[in-house]
Amino acid sequence: xxxxxxxxxxxxxxxxxxxxxxxxxxxxxxxxxxxxxxxxxxxxxxxxxxxxxxxxxxxxxxxxxxxxxxxxxxxxxxxxxxxxxxxxxxxxxxxxxxxxxxxxxxxxxxxxxxxxxxxxxxxxxxxxxxxxxxxxxxxxxxxxxxxxxxxxxxxxxxxxxxxxxxxxxxxxxxxxxxxxxxxxxxxxxxxxxxxxxxxxxxxxxxxxxxxxxxxxxxxxxxxxxxxxxxxxxxxxxxxxxxxxxxxxxxxxxxxxxxxxxxxxxxxxxxxxxxxxxxxxxxxxxxxxxxxxxxxxxxxxxxxxxxxxxxxxxxxxxxxxxxxxxxxxxxxxxxxxxxxxxxxxxxxxxxxxxxxxxxxxxxxxxxxxxxxxxxxxxxxxxxxxxxxxxxxxxxxxxxxxxxxxxxxxxxxxxxxxxxxxxxxxxxxxxxxxxxxxxxxxxxxxxxxxxxxxxxxxxxxxxxxxxxxxxxxxxxxxxxxxxxxxxxxxxxxxxxxxxxxxxxxxxxxxxxxxxxxxxxxxxxxxxxxxxxxxxxxxxxxxxxxxxxxxxxxxxxxxxxxxxxxxxxxxxxxxxxxxxxxxxxxxxxxxxxxx
Length: 592
Hints:
Elements: H1 3-24, H2 30-35, H3 42-53, H4 56-69, H5 74-98, H6 103-110, H7 114-146, H8 151-168, H9 170-201, H10 206-209, H11 222-232, H12 245-260, H13 263-266, H14 275-310, E1 314-315, H15 321-327, E2 332-334, E3 342-343, E4 386-388, H16 392-401, H17 405-443, H18 449-472, H19 478-502, H20 508-532, H21 551-568, H22 575-585
Antiparallel strand pairs: 1-3, 2-4
Helix pairs in contact: 1-8, 1-9, 1-17, 3-9, 3-14, 3-17, 4-14, 4-16, 4-17, 5-12, 5-14, 6-7, 6-19, 7-8, 7-17, 7-18, 7-19, 8-9, 8-17, 8-18, 9-14, 9-17, 11-14, 12-19, 12-21, 14-16, 16-17, 17-18, 19-20, 19-21, 20-21
């Protein structure tokens, strides 16, 4: 059986499992739809939380970033993992004791303000739609490459699957589906890593293998080999970071507090029976996430080594089959600048933006003299002729290494599991924000539970359609918007949640001003450098050398300062609100 047949079998079986779980776990009440009835065990919730967090960005993107950035890519490992420590220690148990359904719910009640609630809803919707568009696009890419269908059709298939278990099952169905999806994605991520680690170093533990000596080059470690391959081609050493220390700190902090402020992650801690269970599930999630995150550097090093060892300075006509297969996806491309038929790969960008391929009237690609797909983009000066999208590294890694077809298909199923699990969680946040926080809490407080559940399902349907549209027609700046989402989460939710839990004196005026200023400053900074003046997006033009990806930390600090100052000079919160805060912080379990 070839890769396509294996992919149909493995993906088909996993999809059937997800749908069966969703039907069996169909939500029958708003509490089951929003928080799975509050009866999920800490272990199951930890697995579901890990799957909810490990999106296409974690499964596909993170290892790809580390493959190209080397040591500098470690900020994502530290930031995204560290965020769960903050969640488990500072937020999860207290928000669970609060006992409501959503982050805007907490903000609205704690700050006794509909305005604060609406601002929180807007933030939740923006962050969620940003993420879910990327997940749907990831689904389309996987289908396009491995099942040989159009990206648009791939997105539609993904929409249909998510629709079934998110709209019908709600949080109850999503939770147990995500448990299965975690098992699929972690198996799919680890198996190729173990295979390649044994092939290259003889060590079956990838976390140790990528620091071990090579089998075919005794006395030479894998990382030394990778450093040598990189410098020979004009790149920096893989193991040497060049990022400024201050910017590294700000990016890591923004990723940490952004993670701790993401609504689709926080809502998972409302699904367990007790406060102590929220803390336990946070620790379980951290453990399950760490499995993938400690394997990711190994996957990055393996993929980068095999890529640099096989593609550069090779004739296109002699390039391996995987290269031509991925070329059709648009995630890898070659333009023969010096007309010698050899793939030159060195430091610098080969094209302006992603490659645009020339298509013929019959729908096939126009081919060059060497048989390559013709690229129409303007050439950037330099010797580099090869374009490689970072997202290719995990999906193509088994093919680059020559692993069995079933392993290649397994990785495709894992990528789909990662994208769909996060997409479902995000869609639920969107539907609950609309049905519960807008309709129930703001527009129609007298709506029946049946009516609210109906509204939540309608909102989920609308969210699926919008997410599908952006997956089919993504904005050119999707990757940049991911940084914007983390910045917004860091600058908006995190300070307000922390102060709402640990300070009785912070009032609604302070919270509203803090959120608005934190949001506005972060939004302005990122938009200016990412979209308005892209040419100025360099360290010498950044404020104090802080990149747009790290500016969420500045927005967070401004939020804290403004909130505390305004609260100092405006009336204290009502006594009942202060008592509520005191109760949230009081040790002990709470059900409900």
